[in-house]
Amino acid sequence: MTGAPAWVTPGMRRLTSSVLGMEAIVLGLTIPVAIRTGGVEPGLAAAVGGGLAVVCVLVIGLLRKPAGYVAGSVLQAAVIATGFLVTTMFFLGALFTALWILAIFVARRVEGATPG
Predict the structure, then answer these.
(1) Is the pTM of this model over 0.90?
(2) From the CA atom positions of the chain, what is the Rg in Å?
(3) Closest CA to 107 of 38, 17, 3, 1
């Protein structure tokens, strides 16, 4: 059997992909903020911000499988942890985590994947 498991709906993939895409943009934008306002070394800021942005894009490609949703959930914790470099990211990471969870539950409910 190929393809996505029954609980992964097309709407869920679209919504979670959108969350991760926007998250990648925000993570990229944290690089200059971390350098200018946080006093973070440019190499560290680029490695963390850029690295997590790339991981967001890679996880989008994994969303056809359950492992993609596990990876996306773990990624949310890493994004919140970037708050140690840029304090605002504690808030933005929590916001993206809420959007991630909401995207999964709303899409499943709307598409009838869960009773409700």
Answers:
(1) no
(2) 15
(3) 17
What DSSP state is assigned to residue 63?
Answer: T
Domain ranges of the chain: 10-107
Q: Is 2 left (phi over 0), alpha (psi -120 to 50) or beta?
A: beta
Burial of 65 (0-12, 13-18, 19+ CB in 10 A): middle
Six-digit token string for 32: 């200059």
Collect all residues with Cβ–Cβ distance below 8 Å to 113 and sequence separation of at least 6: 6, 7, 9, 12, 107
88-110 vs 10-36: helix crossing angle, rounded to 10? 170
pLDDT in tens, 48-103: 999 999 999 999 999 988 899 999 999 999 999 999 999 999 999 999 999 999 99
